[in-house]
Amino acid sequence: MKDPEEFRRAAVERIRADVPGRAIVAASGGIDSTVAAVLAQQAIGERSRALFVDTGLLRTGEVERVRGIAKACGLAIEVVPAAERFLASLEGVTNPEEKRRRVGEAFIRLFEREAERSGATHLVQGTIAPDWIESGGQLRDTIKTHHNVGGIPKDFKLALVEPLRDLYKDEVRALAHHLGVPDPDRQPFPGPGLAVRVIGPVTAERVAVAQRANAIVEAEVEAAVAAGSMKRPWQYFAVLLPVRSVGVLGDNRVFGEVVSVRVVDSVDAMTATSVALPGELSRRISERVTRELAGTVTRVLYDVTDKPPATIEWE
């Protein structure tokens, strides 16, 4: 993408041509889906209905954050509570690919239901190039199935519109800057949410632990950035592992969960480099996680693996 304004005009024209009626817009609150939602609103106005689904797998404060972003860029958005639906779809599932497929199908069925209620025939979503490249197909191996690609069931009832399909993350961010979307350089959050950061079984209780640990990592990294002790990384988060470890709480033995911290730099999400944390930051993160989740988390690890060989997310 050489010229964001030229791309915007072309995308708006394509959406108008592709959507003669009403459309549901999958607005996850991430930069990709927000940009797609803004383009759809510019193209077809009130015929687009942007839905933000509260899956119960979100970061702490995510609903309020997304509402604020939508308001700031003049985007009409509806919040759909669906935590029970998504947690039920993941019950007993530990395989990462199956998690992504289950979450993808849960989104699609919900969008189909809402489309039927409003008479929509199309679904606009913020799929970008790494999503379909990593999801495999043709001569490409499947690195991981993105929920918005491989998670779409074969009997999908809506016509799919993907205005950002050929862009990479850095290009989407440039377009977001041009459109006036707030905080376009904020860190990405996976579409399946904490389902792929809670390794192993996904339960409401384990999600709550991951949410708290993740909030601590975000707060501590952002404080370090604000203090000038490190540059803002591409992504920084906590992962709850499917193992338990012995710890000490007072004079008592406890057998708790294990959290891994991941901080990486990237440009387009296709490759990434692990970031070495400055000074006492890793110690502060570990101290807060084990103190604020005392008796639940007994050990904090740090992931130093680049992409490749690892992916950015653990699942």
Tell me about this structure:
By secondary structure, this protein is α/β, with parallel strands linked by helices. The protein has two domains: 4-179, HUPs (Rossmann fold, 3-Layer(aba) Sandwich); 197-303, GMP Synthetase, Chain A, domain 3, CATH 3.30.300.10. 39% of the residues lie in helices and 20% in strands. It has helices spanning 4-18, 31-44, 62-72, 83-89, 96-118, 129-134, 169-179, 204-226, 281-292; strands at 22-26, 48-54, 77-81, 120-124, 159-161, 235-249, 252-265, 273-274, 297-303.
Concise account of the structure shown:
The protein has 315 residues and is an alpha/beta fold. It contains nine helices and nine strands. The strands form two sheets. It has a five-stranded parallel β-sheet with strand order 3-2-1-4-5, sandwiched between helices. Strands 6, 7, 8 and 9 form a four-stranded mixed β-sheet that branches.
Ranges where pLDDT stays below 50 over 5 or more residues in a row are none
User: Which superfamily, in CATH terms, is the homologous superfamily of the largest domain?
Assistant: HUPs
CATH topology of the largest domain: Rossmann fold
Biggest sheet features: 5 strands, parallel
Say how many strands there are: 9
Rg, rounded, reads 20 Å
Widest sheet: strand ordering = 3-2-1-4-5
Shape-level CATH architecture of the largest domain: 3-Layer(aba) Sandwich
**Helical proportion?**
25-40%
